[in-house]
Amino acid sequence: MPYPPPPRTPSGPRRRTLLASAAGVALLSGCSAGPEDSGGGRGGSPAAADRARARAARDSARLAERYDAVLAAHPALTERLAPLRAEVVRHRKAFEEGTAPSSSPSPSLSPSASASTPPVPADEKTALAELAAAERTLADRRAKALMDVPGELARLLASVAAAGAAHAYLLTEAGK
After folding, report:
1. Would you tell me how many other CB atoms lie within 10 Å of the CB of residue 169?
2. Contact, 135 vs 167, CB < 8 A?
3. 44-80 per-position pLDDT tens digit
C-alpha cells in the first residue's frame, strides 16, 4: 500500500540543504588566506613561528653537515648524495628567508664535520642507512610541528617533510 503524499509541500530550503551549506561555508572560510594566515593564526604569536622557523633552519644545517661528513668519509657516494645535500641546503635557505637577521652567522656548511655530527660508519651501506634514518626522523618531527605553526610556515614544513621522506626512501634504495 503506498503512502499518502504529505498534506503540504514545505516551502524554502530543506534542513539538509541548510546544514550542507553551513558546513561548506565553514570549510571554505577555514581554507581562505586571511590576515590570520600571515603570522598569528593558529600557531600563536609571531615570535613562536620565528622560533619554529629558526629551529627548522638549524635542523637543515645539521642535516647538511651530516651529508658533508658522509661525503668526506665516502667520496664514492658523491654522485648519489650531492643532489640530496643541495636540496637540504635549499631547505635551510627557505627557512632562513622568513626569519629576522640575527647577530650570529648561519652555520657553515663546509665539508668538515662539526663536533655535534656523529661519527660516520666505515661501511657505505650503514652510512646511507644512518643518513636515511636522520632524514626520516627530521621529516617526522617536522610533520608533527605542522599543527603548531601558522599557514605559510606549515605549508613549507609540510613540503620539506615530504622531501625528507622522499630522501629517506632514496637513501634506503641506494643502500641496497
Report:
1. 13
2. yes
3. 567 888 999 999 999 999 999 999 999 999 999 999 9
pTM assigned to the model:
0.67
Q: Are 125 and 175 spatial neighbours (Cβ–Cβ below 8 Å)?
A: yes
Q: Pick from 153, 141, 142: which is nearest to 46 by CA?
A: 153
Closest alpha carbon to 60 in 168, 141, 138: 138
Chain Cα centroid distance, residue 172: 20
The cell numbers describing 78, all together, are 658523491
Phi, psi of 45 (to 5 degrees): -75, 155
pLDDT per position as a tens digit, 130-141: 999 999 999 999
Give Cα separations from 39 to 28, 107, 126, 149 (angstroms): 20, 26, 42, 9
d(CA 123, CA 71): 12
Burial zone of 30 (CB within 10 Å; 0-12 exposed, 13-18 middle, 19+ buried): exposed
